[in-house]
Each structure stands twice: as C-alpha cells, then as structure tokens.
C-alpha cells in the first residue's frame, strides 16, 4: 500500500557544526553534539512508506496548523544562566505562559541541582547493553521514582537466550486528552570492562561520564519533566506512557519480541516523543530520521597456490571479489540523497571466523595462498522504506556479478525502520515551537534527516505522530570523552514538561 506522494519542506541545517570525537555507533544510535546553526529551506518530494518487512503503516497524519515555525531562518538562541534564571521566574520573550505553566517552569528550576545529582547517581552505575544486571539496576531506580509519581510500572523481561535485560514501561491514565508516549533507553555502549565508568564535573557547566548525553541525560529530562507536572498538580490529569528500553545500543533479536511492547504503546498513543539528544543545536528537533539496516557480505572462492591466481581453474580469490563488490557499491550507489552505506569490518584469508554479536572476528591467511573466504559487515541507512528496498536490490545485483571461481552472498538485518517526515510530525514541531517561544528560548527548527541516524522513536513513528531529538546537548558520545551541557538539562526539561502538558489538553485521536 502506497500513500500519495506529498511535498514536504525539510529544513537543512547549515553552518559550522561542533562535533566531538564521537565515532559512528555500530547499531545506528545517534551521536548528540552541541552546535549552533542557521537554516535554509529545501523542498523534498517523498514517496510515502511502502511495504517491507518493517513497513507497518500508520494512520493518516493530521494537517499542519498555521503559524508553524518551519521555514524560520532564525539562528538557535544560546543557553545562558541569565536566560535560564529569567525563565525560571516566569519571564518570557513575548510568550504567554499560564499560571500552571509558570509553576511547572519554576519546579524545574527548583529541582535543578537534584536533577544533576540524580544524573550522577545513574551514570555511576554501569549499564552497558551486555550487562543486564546493571541495566536492571538503573531500571529499578527509575521504576521507584515513577511509581512515587503515581505511575503503574512493569518490568518486561526478555527471553534469556536474547541476552538483554528487558524494558521498563510505566503508565498514568488521567483525563481525556492525548496520550503521549515518552521514549528513552537505559543502556549505554560502555560495558562493564570499559575503563570509562564514572561521572565527573567539569568547568564551564559541563560534566563527563559514560552515557551522560546518550542517553541518561535524556532519561533525566523525562523524569524531571514529569516531576514538574506533578509539582504543579497537573500530572494526574495526563495520559502518559514512559518507555525506557534496555537494549537501544544493541537491539535484541528478533525485533518482533524486543520491540513488541513499544509497538503496542505506540498504537495506543496520539503522539510519541523521543529523548535522544539532538544534532542541530539546542533549538532544533527531529521530524524525520533515517533507519538502520545491517548487512553482511560473505565471499567464497577456490583456494590454491598464489602462483596460479587468475587462472581459469582458480580464479581471482575471495579478497579480489570482495574488493570488486565494495568498489561497485562505491561507484554505483554513492551520492543518492539520504542514502548512505558503510563497510565497518572486513576479514579475509584462508579461513574467517566472525562474531556478529560482538562485532569482532579472526582471519588466517598466507601471502602465497589464494584466499578462500571474506566476510564484510556494514550498515545501510535510508529515509523511506522504498529507498531502503531499492538499495537492497541494487546491492544484491552487484554481489551476483561474481568474478570467475568466486561467489558472494549478502544478508540484510533490518534493525531500525526509517522515520519519514509527515504532516503530523510537523504539527508536533509547531506545538514545541510555541512552547519554546513562550518560555523565551526562541523558535525550534527541523533537523535535516541526512544528519540523523536511527533511534527507538522510529519504531513508534510507524503508528503515530512522532518528534525526536528532545534530549540534552552534549558531545563525544560513544567515546571516553562523552560530556553533557548541564544547563541544557533544565532547558530541555521545561520544554518537555510544557509540551506534554499542552498535548494532554488536546483532543485525543486528533491526528
């Protein structure tokens, strides 16, 4: 089933991007950075999502309202202590906060030190994806906090053979407004044997620590936004689901099990908000992001003495065949808008052993032997399902054109689905833009999806309107230099709390 093609205006961030020394995550999660950028408008024709193994169609999106900030050319407003203090006392830059919203904002200011202390507490607990006890321990802390706020909580165990801790879901069901799904994750890329384990305060309002930006800082934003709503006496009138996943950094397989509860929560929700950090600066959010599909190429050839390589009997060997395939990927497929593919690991020789779960392996070979085996592992990212399926077909065709005496096979593992831009996503952006302006933080702009990787918000976006990039600002994610801008915690918490509050007052099912 194909929905009608529609022209969507995407805002492409331009200017200088301040990037930390983060490496690209192997499972497609995002690397938050702190940057200030300008924007310019660029039209993009997008086919709607088409059928594929991950293409679960969402309901039709609602039309964008008037007064949207999309298309604004204002640069992101820098966060300063003075700005934060002014907002905390209720001052606005031409905005209009209600008495309830002023109480919500004031609560965030009053709990600022508490929020940082809580971040330190959970950061000092190792919760690498492959450390289930650590993930569960962090989950218990959030479970207790959410239960205290009146949420009904449940820990969802994963099958033992999956090797994952499970997920924390919590729900409160008051009022009759929109049900909002808040998405975060408890795990980090830093396993229990990592030397990077502790939270450390730095100068200039920064803190260092494993997962402070990706994404324990975002989890703190979720919790303290809910605390602010409770302090203002409005939480009990909201309908909220909190989903804190335990395996975002390395998703459990199969997805039909590891993401089943997230799918169910999204089906029941009117909007989904993702609290991974953003890449477009403090005044940006994500209406579209590319998915993540892993691929593995296996090449086999005829083994023999290297003195007879290229002969009719022995051919070119596995390494030359793998090189041919990779070069054709590069020559024939690079440059398509929003499509990228990478080869992140290669093993070749007489024999190869590859451990896909831990992204490592061994190869044995000799310089005087025609190599028999090659394994290459990489990623594939696309903005829509049709773009993804087209890329897969082209890659399969290239692999099939084997050199003599060599054969190749390529396997794909769909992990994170694409999150295509929709009118409903832009409508959420408009609400956030109004919140930010009323708080005095300035307009919010959409991030170019070419700069976005995958995240759990993409699973929810198949069923409901979605907005991502609502977490803290930081740099160096997935490296021992990961930091968080502590002032951004308060700013993003205020925005999140007021966004949820305003959505909770809208009519349910109004997408």
Give a quick rundown of the structure.
This protein has twelve helices and 22 strands.
Structure, explained:
The chain is of the alpha+beta class. The protein has 2 domains: 6-44 and 69-289 and 419-504, Zn peptidases (Aminopeptidase, 3-Layer(aba) Sandwich); 292-416, Alpha-Beta Plaits, CATH 3.30.70. The chain has helices at residues 81-88, 99-110, 112-123, 132-148, 212-231, 255-258, 260-267, 318-333, 385-400, 423-439, 457-461, 486-504, and strands at 6-14, 38-46, 152-156, 167-173, 179-185, 200-201, 206-208, 239-245, 271-274, 284-285, 292-301, 304-305, 340-349, 351-355, 360-364, 369-370, 373-381, 406-416, 445-446, 465-467, 474-475, 483-485. The strands form 7 sheets. It has a 6-stranded mixed β-sheet with strand order 3-4-8-5-9-20, with helices on both faces. The chain has a 4-stranded antiparallel β-sheet with strand order 6-7-22-21. The protein has a 4-stranded antiparallel β-sheet with strand order 13-17-11-18, covered by helices on one side. It is elongated. Residues 1-94 have low confidence and may be disordered.
């Amino acid at each position: 089933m194909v929905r009608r093609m529609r022209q969507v205006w995407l805002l492409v961030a331009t200017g200088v991007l301040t990037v930390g020394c983060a490496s690209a995550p192997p499972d497609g999660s995002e690397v938050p950075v702190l940057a200030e950028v300008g924007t310019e408008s660029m039209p993009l024709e997008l086919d709607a999502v088409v059928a594929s193994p991950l293409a679960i169609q969402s309901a039709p999106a609602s039309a964008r309202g008037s007064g949207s900030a999309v298309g604004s050319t204002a640069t992101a407003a820098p966060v300063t202590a003075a700005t934060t203090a002014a907002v905390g006392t209720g001052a606005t830059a031409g905005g209009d906060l209600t008495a309830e919203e002023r109480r919500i904002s004031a609560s965030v200011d009053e709990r600022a030190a508490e929020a940082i202390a809580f971040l330190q507490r959970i950061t000092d607990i190792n919760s690498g994806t492959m450390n289930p006890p650590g993930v569960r321990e962090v989950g218990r802390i959030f479970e207790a906090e959410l239960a205290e706020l009146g949420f009904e909580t449940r820990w969802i165990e994963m099958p033992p053979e999956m090797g994952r801790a499970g997920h924390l879901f919590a729900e409160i069901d008051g009022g009759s407004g929109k049900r909002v799904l808040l998405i975060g994750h408890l795990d980090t890329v830093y396993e229990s044997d990592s030397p990077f384990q502790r939270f450390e305060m730095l100068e200039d309002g920064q803190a260092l620590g494993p997962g402070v930006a990706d994404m324990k800082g975002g989890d703190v934003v979720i919790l303290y936004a809910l605390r602010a709503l409770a302090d203002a006496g409005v939480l009990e009138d909201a309908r909220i689901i909190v989903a804190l996943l335990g395996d975002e950094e390395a998703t459990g397989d199969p997805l039909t099990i590891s993401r089943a509860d997230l799918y169910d929560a999204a089906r029941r929700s009117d909007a989904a908000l993702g609290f991974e950090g953003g890449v477009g600066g403090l005044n940006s959010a994500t209406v579209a992001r590319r998915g993540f599909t892993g691929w593995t190429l296996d090449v086999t050839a005829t083994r023999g003495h290297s003195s007879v390589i290229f002969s009719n009997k022995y051919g070119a060997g596995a390494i030359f065949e793998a090189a041919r395939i990779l070069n054709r990927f590069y020559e024939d497929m690079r440059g398509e808008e929003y499509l990228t593919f990478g080869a992140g690991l290669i093993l070749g020789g007489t024999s190869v052993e590859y451990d896909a779960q831990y992204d490592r392996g061994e190869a044995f070979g000799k310089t005087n032997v025609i190599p028999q085996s090659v394994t290459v592992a990489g990623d594939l990212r696309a903005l829509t399902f049709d773009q993804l399926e087209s890329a897969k077909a082209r890659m399969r065709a290239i692999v099939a054109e084997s050199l003599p005496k060599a054969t190749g096979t390529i396997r794909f593992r769909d992990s994170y689905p694409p999150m295509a831009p929709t009118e409903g996503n832009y409508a959420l952006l408009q609400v956030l833009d109004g919140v930010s302006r009323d708080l005095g933080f300035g307009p919010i702009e959409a991030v170019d999806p070419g700069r976005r990787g995958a995240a759990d918000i993409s699973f929810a976006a198949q069923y409901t309107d979605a907005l991502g990039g609502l977490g803290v600002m930081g740099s160096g994610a997935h490296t021992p230099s990961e930091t968080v801008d502590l002032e951004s915690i308060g700013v993003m918490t205020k925005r999140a709390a007021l966004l949820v509050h305003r959505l909770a007052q809208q009519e349910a099912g109004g997408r």
